[in-house]
Amino acid sequence: MICLWIINTTMDEYTTLTRHLEPQIAQLNRLAKAYLSSEVTLINQVSNYIVNSGGKRLRPLLTLYFNEIFCDDVTEVAEKTLKMAVAIEYIHTATLLHDDVVDNSQLRRNQATANSVFGNSASILAGDFLYSRAFQIMNEVNSTEIMRMMADTTNKIAEGEVLQLMNCNNPKLTEAEYFTVVNYKTAMLFQAACAVPGILSSQPKKIVNDCKKFGGHIGVAFQLTDDLLDYNGTEADIGKKLGDDLKEGKATLPLIRLMAIGDSETKELLTSAIKYPEDTTFEEIVKLVRSSDAISYTQKKAFNEISKAEKCLLSFSDGKSKEQLKRLLEFVTSRKK
Q1: Structure confidence by residue, pLDDT tens digits, 194-239
Q2: Given 35, 44, 112, 143, which residue has the most CB atoms within 10 angstroms?
């Protein structure tokens, strides 16, 4: 039975990918629950609400897989790896709490967002709690290299969030600028998740860098797929409102591509949609996106990242975890949620 911290994921392939890690996931669940404890009731309520709301938990899953590759039989390293998996997911969860306030989101993972249930102030402060608790956990791990990496990572995530905010309602956003935001906001934490076991098991610098490269590529592919689902997914599958990105004035790669290849009328319509999303009919934009090569173009970019990630795996020893990572790469771009 898949444990409660990884829930609401009904996709057969994902369930198969997590099955052999059930003992580690059970430990992860217990640890995550223990570290969430606070004497402040509202912090407990908000933190538990979002942490237990489901999700794919790809970041801790990647950490567990790389732990198996490098140090599965080393108890002390495995214990520290589990702690770091919790810390990384806490950081991710904190960014979700803050994101939903910034974006005024009302739905995530098919349920009301924490800010819509508890209010913006409580959500922001609970996110702050999770951030600080993550660094308390990292202090227990007692690795200067990991602390330095995570400080750099969280700093870049914050920069990515601010860059995205600055680029809202900007129809002139370039593809290069878009990928800068993706690398900062999403890929950096994937990199850290993959690098942790290599650092804790004292792998050579090249191996640790290959772990980071793998995480970066899978992180970018994950975000590209997310952006695609906003235009070719369903609300039931993705667990949030379709068109949320556009409604927030965000030009993601499908729109950037359409802006680049569209005729003057299309460009005028897209410019207006990005600048004034409240006056836009989302269905009209979706029709334009789907009738162009914007979907296939974005998919190609995602597949290219997956190909690069797979090449990174050549640096690691063959085994079950490596094969599972290959299957996970397939899942990232084929998922519907």
Answers
A1: 999 999 999 999 999 999 999 999 999 999 999 998 888 665 555 5
A2: 35
* Domain-embedded: residue 3: no
Distance between CA atoms of residues 77 and 71, nearest Å: 7
Helix (H) or strand (E) holding 261: helix 253-261
SS3 state at 152 = helix
Whole-Å CA distances, 209 to 203, 212, 240: 10, 5, 35
Angle, CA of 325, 328 and 334, to the nearest 5°: 155
pTM for this structure?
Answer: 0.90
What six digits make up the tokens of 333? 């771009």
Q: Distance between CA 224 and CA 4 in Å, rounded?
A: 28
Name the region of 112 (left: φ>0; alpha: ψ -120 to 50; beta: rest).
beta
Give the tokens for residue 122: 């409580």
Phi-psi region of 54 (alpha: psi -120 to 50; beta: other; left: phi over 0): left
Range of the domain at 203: 12-334
Say which CATH number the domain at 91 has.
Answer: 1.10.600.10
Residue 79 burial by CB count (10 A; 0-12/13-18/19+): exposed, middle or buried? middle
Q: Which of 224, 242, 246, 220 is nearest to 233 (CA)?
A: 242
| Dihedral sign, Cα of residue 27, residue 32, residue 33, residue 35 | positive
Cβ-based neighbour number of residue 287 at 10 Å: 11
Q: Is residue 1 part of a domain?
A: no
* Count: domains in the chain: 1
In a domain, 141, yes or no: yes
Q: What local confidence, expressed as pLDDT, does residue 9 receive?
A: 38
State pLDDT tens for residues 137-150. 999 999 999 999 99
- The rounded distance, in Å, linking the Cα atoms of 33 and 276 is 43
